[in-house]
Amino acid sequence: MLVAMEKKRGVAVIAVVVMAGCALATLLSFLGRFWWGFDLFANFHLQYAAVLAAVAVCFAVIRQRMLLVGSLLLLVPHLVCLSYYYPWKGAVETDGEPLLEVIAFNVLTSNLRHDEVLGYLQKEDPDVLLLVEVNQGWLEALAPLERTHPHFRQLPRADNFGMALYSRFPIRAHDTVALSSELPCMATLIDWDGRLISVIGAHPLPPIGGIRAMLRDQYLKQLGELAKVAGEGGDVVLLGDLNTTPWSHGFRELLESGGLLDSARRRGFQSSWKRLNPVFSLPLDHILHSPGLECVERRIGPDLGSDHRPVGASFHCR
Q1: Cα(285)–Cα(184) distance, integer angstroms
Q2: Which one of 135, 205, 211, 270 has the largest count of C-beta atoms within 10 Å of its C-beta?
Q3: Using CA atoms, how far apart are residues 96 and 113, in angstroms rounded to an integer?
C-alpha cells in the first residue's frame, strides 16, 4: 500500500513539474513580439497540446481533480491556436475550372537524391515550381525540367540560399530583389492563360540567435510590402521556406501587411520540416495567396532526402 502511494506521489510530482514547464512555455509563446527567444516558444503549440493532454490523463488516472482541471485549462490556448488548422474543410469543388498548380520545395543543398526529386517533380508536373537551396549541381540534375517548363529563372548559390523558379506559362517580367541580409527574393509575373499572376519566391534566414531572428523578421516585413505592391496590380502567390510558423508574430504581420491568405488554413496540421519528428515537426514551408485566388487543395509531398517536404497547392479564380 505504501509503495503504491509513493509511486502515485512520484507520478504526481513529475506531472506537476511538466505542467509547470508547459505553463511557462505557454506564457512565453504569446510574448514573441518582445524578444526573439520568446517567439521560438510560439512554434510548438501542437507539442504543448500533446504533452498537456498526456498530463491530464495522468492526473485523471491518479485522481488529482484540481490538477486535472488546471492541465485542461492550460490546454485551451493551444487548442485555440491549433484551430488555425481545424476544422478541416477538405477540397473545394471547381466544376472543372482550370487550376493553377504550384509546388514549393526546399531541396537541401547537400541532398544527393537528385533523381528521386526529379522523378517526383515530373510526376506532379506543377504549372509553377519554386526550389530553394539549389546550387549549380542541382540545376544540372534538374535540367530536364527546362523542357516541360521552358520559362525559368535560376539563381544558384553554394550557401543554402539559391533559388530556381520554373513555369509552364510565359514569364512577362522578373526581378531579383535583395531583402534583409542581402538574401534574394524572386518576383516574377506569370501569364496564366491571359491572367497575370505575381509569383514571389522567398527564403529568409532561420531565427537562430538574436541577429538572425531580427533579419528574418525584417525580411518578412519587406516581403509583406512587396506582396502588397504586387497585389495592387492583380493576384499574388507567395511561396517558399519562410522559416516561421503561422503562430509567429512575423508571419501574422506578413499576412496582414501583404493582404495575403494562407493556403494551409483549415487544411489540417501539415508539417513540412522534420515531418516525422514528433518533437520538432513544424510547418515552415508556405504557399500564400491573394483573396482573388481560392485554394482548392493543399498537400505535403514525400520524403525525398531533404529535411523539408514539398508543399503543393491548387488554385482557381474566385
Answers
A1: 17
A2: 205
A3: 35
pLDDT tens-digit readout, 3-56: 455 666 777 788 899 999 999 999 999 998 889 999 999 999 999 999 999 999
Specify which residues 189 forms β-bridges with: 173, 198
Quick one: angle between helices 210-231 and 249-258, nearest 10?
20
β-strand 311-317 against 293-300: which pairing, if any?
A: antiparallel
C-alpha cell at 76: 485551451
Residue 24 has a CB neighbour count (10 Å cut-off) of 11
Task: Please name the helix (run of DSSP H) or strand (run of DSSP E) that holds residue 249, with its range, or none.
Answer: helix 249-258
b/e per residue 224-262 (b: at least 16 CB within 10 A): bebbbebbeeebbbbbbbbbbbbbbbbbbebbebbbbbb
Give the separation between CA 247 and CA 264, rounded to whole angstroms: 13
pTM more than 0.85? yes
Backbone angles phi, psi at 124, to 5 degrees: -70, -40
Ordered DSSP codes for 3-58: HHHHHHHHHHHHHHHHHHHHHHHHHHHT-TTT-HHHHHGGG-HHHHHHHHHHHHHH
- Structural domains of the chain, with CATH: 2-82 (no CATH), 100-317 (3.60.10.10)
Which backbone phi and psi does 242 adopt, to 5 degrees?
A: -90, 0
Per-residue pLDDT tens over the stretch 174-220? 998 888 777 889 999 999 988 999 999 999 999 999 999 999 999 99
